[in-house]
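To make this tangible, this section ends with a sequence with its structure tokens:
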Amino acid sequence: MNIQHPKHYTAGEYEVIDIIHSICDSLPLTPFQGYLQGNIIKYLCRWKHKGGVEDLGKAKVYLNWLIGEGENENNK
């Protein structure tokens, strides 16, 4: 199993893990929000190179969960 720099995460100029690390570390997120956001970024970055529309659907699920987290914060 190739987990070091797989092609579907290194197709652009930057590796997806580096993008996730940079974005999530710079925002005031709860651990769960960071997890959700990281998965959204992952699926959006790789969908054309690995999972196709199925990955977009996965990103949508994680986005809906993140929206719910944001709505819960706003209602506190």
Q: What stands out?
A: The radius of gyration is 13 Å. The mean pLDDT is 87. Residues 31-76 form one domain. DSSP finds three helices and no strands in the chain.
